[in-house]
Amino acid sequence: MNVLSIGNSFSTNAHKFLPQMAKASGKELLLCNLFIGGCSLEQHWKNWREEKTDYDYEIYLPFETEMTRADDIALHEAVEDEEWDVITLQQCSHFSGIPESYSPYLSELAEYCRMVQPKAKIMLHQTWAYESGCRHPGFAHYGNSQQEMYRALTEAYVNAAMEADIDIIIPSGRAWQTARNTPIGDKLTEDGYHGNDLGCYLAAACFYEKIFNESIYDNDFILPDVPEQITEILKLCAHTAVEKGIIRKQ
């Protein structure tokens, strides 16, 4: 399975434990992330149109769990690099609940990826709301309210996916919000917005289920130094988010 994410630090978070999950189940996974910190869909679109070589290329080779990097990569170079089975796109977190920030950038990037990689599934990665009390300046778009940010980003992702004709949403944001209503609570970040190990596990589990079409319950990878009951809650939250989804296209 060859997977490319066109993203930022939130896709880096989502990838962190995915190679370990794939290895634990004996799945061959080439996992790559086009990385610019805080990169929006508009900036990805501009970089693509202008062929800017501004990206770090974060690479996990099959059955390897250590990341390697390449520098000064252009978006089109990565999209054309392999025969991808899955390409994921996402909005930067602070614009995630702003509907106008998606158009026309998501639709045009998705269409470009389909043109170059007609066999690939194009997926949209739903990012998550910030921790309550987070000091990220973008939190002000949502009145510094986690609930408002989650509501707004969920609605924006659904509408953007429909406009761009994307059928598959990886519901990391829903999994996070579900976990916050468990004994885990609002303890999924290391700085108010980037995932800690619990948050990264949740996002990776959502990726795993959507990419491989298998339940995370059947995966033997466990987080080190995390109680088994916490891991079971994380699995439940990710599986429930994927099972329920956030979009039903007719």
Describe this structure in words.
The chain is α/β, with parallel strands linked by helices. It has one domain (about 1-245): SGNH hydrolase (Rossmann fold, 3-Layer(aba) Sandwich). It is about 40% helix and about 15% strand. The chain is built from 9 helices and 7 strands, in the order βααβαββαβαβαβααα. It has helices spanning about 10-15, 20-25, 40-50, 75-80, 105-115, 145-165, 170-180, 195-210, 230-245, and strands at about 1-5, 30-35, 55-60, 70-75, 85-90, 120-125, 170. A 7-stranded mixed β-sheet has the order 4-3-2-1-5-6-7, sandwiched between helices. Helix 6 (about 145-165) links the parallel strand 6 (about 120-125) and strand 7 (about 170). Helix 3 (about 40-50) packs across helix 5 and helix 7 crosses helix 8. The radius of gyration is 17 Å and the shape is globular. The chain starts with a strand and ends in a 6-residue tail after the last helix. The model has no long low-confidence stretch (mean pLDDT about 95).
